[in-house]
Design a protein that fits this description.
Pfam families: Peptidase_M19 (PF01244)
Order of helices and strands: HEHHEHEHEHEHEHEHEHHEHHH
Number of strands: 9
Distance between the termini: 152 Å
CATH class of the largest domain: Alpha Beta
Shape: elongated
Subcellular location: Membrane
Protein name: Dipeptidase
Bound molecules: zinc ion
Largest sheet: 9 strands, parallel
CATH superfamily of the largest domain: Metal-dependent hydrolases
CATH topology of the largest domain: TIM Barrel
Structural class: alpha/beta
Family: Belongs to the metallo-dependent hydrolases superfamily. Peptidase M19 family.
Catalytic activity: an L-aminoacyl-L-amino acid + H2O = 2 an L-alpha-amino acid
Strand content: 5-15%
Helix content: 40-55%
Radius of gyration: 28 Å
């Protein structure tokens, strides 16, 4: 009986010991897991406070046009319903700089695209100058040193300049520092990744002579050449031609999601050679072609690009307000920390994240400005697009129409009518 009692007690102690060990293991695991989560969250906030994010592409201005008809006086910029971007959420998301797109629909091409672009530039300028938390900047230094949320203006789509280098220069004067060569439509001089619109279809002509002149003029001015939305052939042609680094302001990795808006590995390698930047897009159709879009799938794009070209060519261009449908946990501009935390859990170092968050963009912008300085003695380009390449009913011809006969197709001015008149006068004199 005693034996049984003692044995039973031992059994109870043994049971209690095992249970205690399990309990202890469970609590320890939970604590270490919690510690990991807390320390990753703390590290995320610490890194994002030190290196506030510069995001390469945001379409708030488009939403302000569609939903509010640009009536800023009716909007509280700290809390704007039906959009993904406002000052409160930019602050919560640790955003230190935002490239805002002045975008007008492709259907405005050859119509009132220039006016509409001016109106979009106006609304961005107003947003960024009428709110004390924001600051409109035009230089890399201004962006680097500001303690506010800086705004940089980009034009999204070459149709906005109506094939005019003087129009491009005037956009620069208004503060535009970046331009995507196309949106979802071809321009008369560059090709889009989309064939949705049938405008200006050409064969084997991804960047025309005038397109090269646009790129050179952007290099001369110090404007970032943005290849998001361009066809891969156009992107390759630009990479052959640009003397400054270029960016993909909101594109992801084609190997992870095979959408033509994304960048294939061979182009990534060319981009690295060029010293440029790919800023990863969060839009679900560009990050998860077949998977369910999640923060983790977005992080897969970062891991892949890192594997192919390293972290120095990577940034973030989420495309908020430019599309409907973002992964759960990355729905608006307050959610960037979720991605950074995911990258930390994948062993991305502070140095790598500092680059992704802001330093890579600043380096590229600064290099673009350096190329501008090196070209300071190059005169503004007076290249005009050949009339027949941009012929449309809304284009008024102000110069002598003699220039525009059929031989102008070759880019040469025809003297045939002048010669004919001269021969006629000589003949008349001889007859007299
Ligand atoms: Zn876009």
């Amino acid at each position: 009986m005693t034996f049984y009692y003692q044995h039973h007690r031992m059994f109870i102690y043994k049971e209690a010991g095992i249970r205690g060990a399990w309990k202890q293991w469970f609590i320890c695991s939970l604590l270490s897991l919690l510690h990991g989560v807390i320390s990753e969250t703390t590290r995320t906030l610490d890194i994002m406070t030190k290196y506030p994010l510069i995001d390469g592409h945001n379409d708030l201005a488009l939403r302000l046009r569609i939903i509010y008809n640009n009536k800023l006086n009716l909007i509280n910029m700290h809390n704007i319903p039906h959009v993904a971007t406002d000052i409160s959420r930019l602050t919560a998301g640790h955003v230190g700089g935002q490239v805002f797109a002045a975008y007008v629909l492709c259907t405005a091409q050859d119509k009132d695209a220039v006016r509409l672009t001016l109106e979009q530039i106006d609304v961005i300028r107003r947003v960024c100058t009428e709110n004390p938390e924001l600051e409109l900047v035009t230089t890399a230094e201004g962006m680097r040193n500001s303690t506010k949320i800086t705004c940089l203006i980009s034009v999204e789509g070459g149709h906005s300049i109506d094939s005019s280098l003087p129009a491009l220069r005037m956009f620069y004067q208004l503060g535009v520092r970046s331009m995507a060569l196309t949106h979802t439509c071809n321009t008369p001089w560059a090709e889009s990744s989309s064939s949705f619109y049938r405008f200006y279809q050409r064969k084997n002509n991804s960047l025309t002579e005038f397109g090269k002149a646009v790129v050179k003029e952007m290099n001369r001015l110090g404007m970032l050449v943005d290849l998001s939305h361009s066809s891969w052939e156009t992107a390759r042609a630009v990479l052959n031609h640009s003397t400054a680094p270029v960016i993909f302001s909101h594109s992801s990795a084609y190997t992870i999601c095979n959408n033509t808006r994304n960048v294939p590995d061979d182009l990534l390698l060319r981009l690295k050679e060029n010293g440029g930047l790919i800023m990863v897009n969060f839009y679900r159709s560009f990050v998860a072609c077949s998977n369910i879009p999640t923060v983790s799938v977005v992080a897969d794009h970062f891991d892949h690009i890192k594997l192919v070209i390293g972290t120095e060519s990577i940034g973030i261009g989420a495309d908020f307000d430019g599309a409907q449908g973002f992964p759960e946990g990355l729905e608006d501009v307050s959610k960037y920390p979720a991605l950074i935390e995911e990258l930390i859990s994948r062993n991305w170092s502070e140095e790598e994240l500092a680059g992704v968050l802001r330093l890579n963009f600043l380096r590229v912008f600064q290099k673009v400005e350096k190329v501008r300085d090196e070209m300071q003695y190059t005169l503004p380009s007076e290249v005009e697009i050949p009339f027949l390449e941009a012929n449309n009913s809304c284009r008024v011809i102000l110069t002598n129409p003699v220039r525009y006969d059929s031989s102008y197709r070759n880019g040469k001015t025809s003297l045939v009518p002048v010669r004919a008149i001269a021969w006629f006068i000589i003949l008349l004199i001889q007859l007299l």
